[in-house]
Amino acid sequence: MRALVWNGPGALALETRPEPEPAPGEVLLKVLTVGICGSEVEGYLGESAIRKPPLIMGHECAGEVVAVGEDVTGVAPGERVSLNPLLSCGRCPRCREGQQQQCPERQLVGAQRPGAFAEYVAVPAENVYVLPPGTSEVAGAVTEPLACCIHAVDRSGIGIGGRAAVIGFGSLGVLLTQALQWAGVEEIVVVEPDAGRRAIAQGFGATAALDPAAAAEAGGALDVAFDTVGKGVTRALSVDLLRTGGSAVLLGLHDAGFPIDGNAFLRRELTMISSYAYNRTSFARAVDVLPRVGLDGWITFGGLEDGPSSFKTLIEDPTGPPKIMMRP
Length: 328
Fold this sequence. Notes:
Number of strands: 17
Number of helices: 11
Strand content: 25-35%
Distance between the termini: 10 Å
C-alpha cells in the first residue's frame, strides 16, 4: 500500500509499505479521509515528544471496514466508520471512571502505532463508530477534534446564556464555535489575527470576530475563554478576557508555559481549567451530532502525494484554510 511516512524533522515521503492485517479484536480500514492535525505539524518539525520516526502519522480518520479479525462483533465489512484514535487499557481507575484520556497507558493511533496517512490502517474494533446515515466521510474525519471541543465545553461548565471567547480560529476554533452554539451560549467572541479567518468565524455565527489587539483593548467581561492555540501569549490573553470569577479553558498544546500575574489572578477569583482530548462518552456524542456539523469554507483536500506540500503550507501560510484533509 501507499503510505506517507515521517522520517525525521521536515522529512515526509510517500513510500510503499505492506498492507496491515487485523489482529484478533481489530478491524482493517480503507482510509477514506484523514485530516492533518496541528499536533502532527509539530511532529513533522520534530517538536512532539510522543512521535518517533519512522512513523505513519494520522489520527483524524474516517474509513470503510474491509476486513475484521477474530472475535470481532458489532461492525462488519462495508460499513463506514469514524476512528477514535485514543487507546486506553480499560483496567486502571481512570478508565473504570470513564476518563480514558487520563489512562497512564494511553496510546494514540498515528503516534505510538501506525496511523491513517496511508491507504489502510488496522485498529481495535472497539474504537470505531459507525457513521450516522447520510453522514459524509469528511464529517467522519472531524469527529476526533469535535470530541475535543465537546469535552472542553463540558469541562468549562458554560451553558445557556453564557458569554465565551474562542481564541484561534483553526479547525478547533471552527468546531468549538459550533459546539458552544449547541450548548446555548449567547455570546461567542472569536479572537483571530487573520482577517480571512475572522470572516469565516462570522459566517459560523460568532457574535464578534476581533484581532488580538482589539480583544485585549476591550478588556475582560466574558464568563469563559477557550484557548485553542496554546502559546504563552494566547494563554495570557485568555485570562485577560475574563470577568471576575471567570474561567480560562486551555486546550491548545504549544508552549510549555506562560506568564501570569498570580496576585491579580487570585484577587479576581479566576479559575484555570485544562482540557485534554476526550473520553469515550464525548467521542460518541460527537458521532451523534455529525449531521449538524458545518463543513463549508474551512477545509481543503489533497491526496497522500500532496502530503509534503500540505505540511509546508500549514507551516508557511497560517492564513490559509483551517484544515487540510487527504483522500488516499
